[in-house]
Design brief:
Length: about 140
């Protein structure tokens, strides 16, 4: 799925803008559990399970002016901040999958970001998390 907008501008409210893009995040481990994660940080960045910067979701405005929602589109839903509910981005949000026995698990979901005041969805992206333990 391609992001609906490259950049969303809030209609009224904060006047802030956001941008998120599709991400394919993987973790491969040997001898220990694997975990793949997607973080929306309060500093306006997106990170993976290794605290690697992926992109900036907050272009202008204040983090708490925006909410995020995750909707499962495939695979095995993992854990984290919640699925299907709008959550304010004044707090760090994360979604993750973990694979303890040998094998692999995948979870795909859409993440949307909206203006918390106007409730207008400003951007969305498709996220794929895959965690694999090979021994």
């Amino acid at each position: 799925m391609k992001a609906i907008k490259v950049m969303g501008q809030a209609a009224g409210g904060s006047g802030g803008s956001v941008s998120i893009t599709n991400q394919n995040i993987t973790d491969l481990e040997s001898g220990i559990p694997a975990a793949a994660a997607y973080y929306l940080m309060t500093d306006g960045t997106v990170e993976n399970q290794d605290a690697i910067y992926l992109e900036s979701w907050l272009l202008t405005g204040t983090n708490s002016d925006f909410d995020a929602r995750v909707t499962t589109t495939g695979g095995t839903p993992g854990g984290g901040s919640g699925i299907g509910s709008w959550l304010n981005l004044g707090t760090m949000r994360l979604w993750t999958v973990t694979q303890s026995p040998i094998g692999s698990v995948n979870w795909t979901f859409d993440v949307e970001i909206r203006n918390a005041t106007s409730l207008v969805v400003l951007d969305s992206a498709a996220i794929s998390l895959t965690a694999t333990r090979d021994s």
